[in-house]
Structure of Glycoside hydrolase family 1 protein:
Amino acid sequence: MASNSASSIAPQFTYGTFSYAALSTTRYATPLPSPVTYAAYAPAFTAVSTLLPLNATTTTYSLVPNATDSADMFGQSAYSALWNAYSYNLTVPFTTTVSPTPVAATDLIYPPPTYTPYSNPVTSNLLPADFVWGVAGSAWQVEGGLQIEGRGPAVLDFIGALPDTAGATPPVTTTMNYFLYKQDILRLAALGIPYYSFSIAWPRIVPFGKEGSPINQQALDHYEEVIDFCLENGVTPVVTLVHFDYPLLTPPTSDTFPAHFLYYAKQVLTRFADRVPIWVTFNEPNNLSGADFAYNINILLSHSAVYNFYKDVLKGTGKMTLKLSNNFAVPLDPTSANDTAAALRYQDFLLGILGNPLFLGQNYPDSVQSTFNTTYLPPLTDAQIEQFNGTIDFFSIDPYTTQFATPPDVGIEACIADPSNVLWPVCVNTTFLQADGWLDGNPSNDYVHTTPAFFTEHMSYLWNTFKPSGILISEYGFNQYNEALMAYDIARFDTLRSMYYQEFVDAMRMCIWDMGINIIGALAWAYVDNDEFGSFSQRYGLQSFNETTFERSFKRSIFDYVDLFTNLVSKD
């Protein structure tokens, strides 16, 4: 006897009369309500200014090449001398903040749908109402004006300097966000994007980068205006203290780095912490490109000192974290003990060095300690572990893609014993090719592959290994293959980027509802195409910009991204 359950009822097929339906109708983006309403996250500057070092002074600098006006070690001529090693083949096209104009209604028209939505969509398993979603950028990559308004040089500034660095795009212009930030924020607000993650340039605030050196008043005024303009227009700021652009004189490998960083961070936090709910101390200090593992102790010392100042001295009630890079390693052959060991070893080096002491109150992973001698990387002391443990409010991760791991041809142990091996000290081979010859996902113009199928496993590793209170996806994005070579109308219809975000967000919902993993937010990289450390050909942006007029243009993906979260974030 046939069952009468709904699953066994056959669809009914009937004929009717054909008529054209309006599948594409003009629809406009919904702007954010403004301003942002919030309770202060820390006391106002007037109440805590006494917490700043007594020797801190403010000044303004201007770049006057070969100036000899002062013998002061931090005077105008000393400031100009900082730039002696750098010259650029472009000058900035404007040097004052551009007054914003309302975003044209024609720019806010949604693109046509790319599929026919099912009439009974699943509305369960929504993202939490307090889910933090938005977009991200960083100072060095978008601001331009490197030598404008008293900014000091950064360790990154050799990129694009003369003599030309292998054709690198000069960062003195990039998207000119330093003077176009109001227009950028208005565009986000007009689309309804509630969070904007950006970084403050340490070399702007403290041009010499050093403890006790003058504070640049123009930079303080600028970033205060950025934060206030966000809030006035309904956008909530998420602020990173340094995104790779360390001051030239204070690289993170310096023994005095923690003192310099705390000096800078105090200047920023005392002034702006009352208006910012989420702070990030460092961006991807664990990035393995040219890694010097010994300097991680400086990151731990610096981060914990700033965290303690924010929580215990400033009495900040917001959240503080640091962002970690992790292109997750999975075993090339999941049934192979050797491949599994290689994947876990890779994760130890990438995440365990900082994650163990911060989240678990544990020393560096055994795999790391057994690779280095104790002169190069001394084990953490019990006092240090106690100092670092718990000085982070949630896990922030930049999980752009996934790769496969396998041991070196000579084996892990032989590699460890041979510092001349090109894979030393991590001693793990990584690849995007599966054992069967297929790529793990659709390739982009750089290293990113669309790998959402591995996302839940990645989050499970973080959640169950480090046991954080929550996980913020602090960057994720996709740079379409050869987008820079496409005609404008083709490039802006970036469906593959939209699919990347759709699939990752669906995986986030699976983490939350099916796996019990607390994903608290997701911030897309990047809000606009920018200088990817010497190249505009790597286009991660949800917007493009004209390199002559600097006018921004929305891509299809930014509308799809807004739709995605508008429909999936609970209204309760």
Observations:
- The chain has one domain: 28-568.
- The longest strand covers residues 236-242.
- The longest helix spans residues 337-360.
